[in-house]
Amino acid sequence: MPSRPPRRLSRPLLAGAAALTLAGSLTACGASAADPNAKEITVYSADGLKSEKGDGFYDKVFKDFEKQTGIKVNYVESGSGAAVQRLARERTNTKADVLVTLPPFIQQADGKGLLDTYRPQGSDQVAAADKDPGGKWVSVVNNYFCFIYNKKELPKPPATWQDLTDHRFAGKLQYSTPGVAGDGTAVLIKALHDFGGQGPAMDFLKKLQANNVGPSSSTGQLAPKTDKGELLVANGDVQMNYANTKTMPNQGIFFPAAKPGARPTTFALPYAAGLVKGAPHADSARKFLDYLLSKPVQEEVSAVGGGFAARKDVKPTDPNATALAKIMNGVDIFEPDWNDIDKNLDTYVNAWRTATGS
Fold it and tell me: Minimal CB count within 10 Å: which of 4, 32, 48, 93?
């Protein structure tokens, strides 16, 4: 069964991640001191693909890549926006070789001149909407924004945005902070799309604030709270939340519709990778990007990582791929104007802060 979901709609708005939570060790030296022939690379990445238990997509990819090439991967995890900010601070002493982050922050990294041109082998099989036409970045794992709910406490998920304003969700609903967390920014952008513009979206989010627990810099922290019943509803993304259902079985994934009778909508939040400009170990980084887009690795995206393959010619049939296709069935996918979001993100976030008093 194909791993990519149904039809795409118009071209509204979208966004990505932020809060800094480092994981793993950074051992690569800066560009001024690093040995370009060292058998190692450093990857700055948004969270979601590596497991605390050591059985995630990155865990297997890093291990297999080192075994195949002898190149060690040093991993630094953060929010998407934080990764770009760190790269910018280190511009004169570059430490990272590869950046993996969510839109619109991959576009932001390109706009800041932090990425070099490289088209990995296999990138010709990635859809045009999922890669930079100039060759600065390409999606390596596809993913989609979602909400989650506690299946034990709720017999069925809320159907619409309006359902989330019900008094039963007072103090039991939380979404991560727009402009700080990627999935939190995505809440804002889905509202802009579903309500048809900034004014009505902010009116709704102001009303929803009565039920909102408050700010959260990390979307990942909301999943265990939802699983335990501390929250009834939170935001997330399909790959992350589907992957952790093994340890958090009370989570359910849903997509609120704009109004009763409307079809639910979502948008792509792909993990996009690029070669860092001035990378200390550029040759090894290129090999790693080739490896990420190789067919054998792409065929493991769903089976191991619970995500969607980026390559169009990879159509997995493993149980995870089948389950993911079922989750996305009946959900309309709209394609964002990433350039507009990159340009106007601060305006949207400031409007949200004003509306919610955050």
Answer: 32
> What is the pLDDT at residue 34?
63
Residue at 280: amino acid letter = P
CA dist 200 and 355 (Å) reads: 11
Q: Is the pLDDT of residue 327 over 70?
A: yes
Other beta carbons within 10 Å of 319: 10
DSSP 170-210: TTTEE-PPTTTSHHHHHHHHHHHHHHTSHHHHHHHHHHHTT
Angle formed at CA 42 by CA 32 and CA 91, multiple of 5 degrees: 45
What type of residue is 342?
D
Q: In angstroms, rounded to a whole number, what is the distance separating the alpha carbons of residues 82 and 88?
A: 10
Residue 271, beta-bridge partner list? 141
- Give the pLDDT band (50/70/90) at residue 33: low
**Contact, 268 vs 95, CB < 8 A?**
no
pLDDT, average across residues 38-66? 92
Residue 37 banded pLDDT, cuts 50, 70, 90: confident
Q: How is residue 48 written in tokens?
A: 């979601």
Is 269 a residue whose pLDDT tops 50?
yes
Q: State whether residue 54 is helix, strand or coil.
A: coil
User: Can you tell me the distance from the alpha carbon of 75 to that of 44, in angstroms, rounded to the nearest whole number?
Assistant: 6
Read off the pLDDT of each residue in 285-310 and give the average, rounded to a whole number. Answer: 97
Mean pLDDT score of the chain, rounded to an integer? 89
* Residue 179 confidence (pLDDT): 82
Q: Which residue has the tokens 């999606």?
A: 139
Radius of gyration of the chain from its Cα atoms, rounded to whole angstroms: 19
Closest CA to 120 of 295, 265, 261: 295
Map tokens 């039963």 to a residue: 168
Q: How far apart are the first and last CA of the chain?
A: 43
Please state the pTM of the whole predicted model. 0.83
